[in-house]
Amino acid sequence: MKLYSISILRNESKPATVLASAEDLSSFGFFQRGSVGEFMTFFSKTIAERTTTGQRQDIEEGNNYVGHVYAHSSGLAGVIISDKEYPVRVAYSLLNKILDEFITRHPKPRWQFDPMNPSAPAPSTPFPELHTYIVRYQDPKQADTIMRVQQELDETKVVLHKTIESVLERGERLDTLVDRSEALSAQSRMFYKQAKKTNSCCVVM
Q: How far is CA 162 from CA 60, 83, 122, in A?
């Protein structure tokens, strides 16, 4: 079981904006990490933008990993990317925890989208706790405490299980979005295409 990344995004307008993130790419080859990290950020933004407020979705990308996404009512979205073995309930318990803590630390007026200044750079919203959590929760047993607190609440919530193809809009393809993305370097786009040919995008080395 493995957690690869945790992201908090402003999701009230498109494109989604990453406000805080942490990654653990130590299980990938050294020269792959830059491209893998870029693609995971791209994937996080893509699935956040396609998750409606209040919705929880598990979205699979090929056979290799899953994006767990929760669109919070505040206009934020939390995204965890893990392997397929990571427990779903732990992922969403952690997302609830980090979003609540982030909103307490950074109230909405600090980061909300300003339609009068749509090109404004992302605000500074440091949240170093994500680096602690991505290390601590590599072991799902560490989540026992928050899982007990959340258990009653979680039982009433629905998590939708989808593939990346099913959340894209009609006529959209992930390959096309990759080609058009300005957030991905040419090297990362090439890495994605080569890895897809061998069905090995983001496979642990």
A: 6, 15, 30
The conformational region for residue 75 under phi > 0 = left, psi -120 to 50 = alpha, else beta, is left
Could you tell me the two tokens for 19?
């406000």
Across the strands, what pairs with 5?
Answer: 23, 81
Using alpha carbons, select from 2, 35, 8, 22 the residue that is nearest to residue 195: 35
Q: What span, in angstroms and rounded, lies between the C-alpha atoms of 145 and 78?
A: 20
CA 142 to chain centre: 20
Distance CA 194, CA 155 (A): 41
Q: Is 98 helix (H, G, I), strand (E, B) or coil?
A: helix
**First CA to last CA across the chain, in angstroms?**
15
* pLDDT digits 0-9 by tens, 145-196: 555 555 545 544 555 566 666 656 655 666 666 666 666 677 666 666 666 6
**27-65 pLDDT tens trace:** 888 888 888 888 889 889 999 998 989 989 988 877 778
Neighbours of 129 (CB within 10 A): 17
What is the C-alpha to C-alpha distance for residues 66 and 63, in angstroms, rounded to an integer?
9
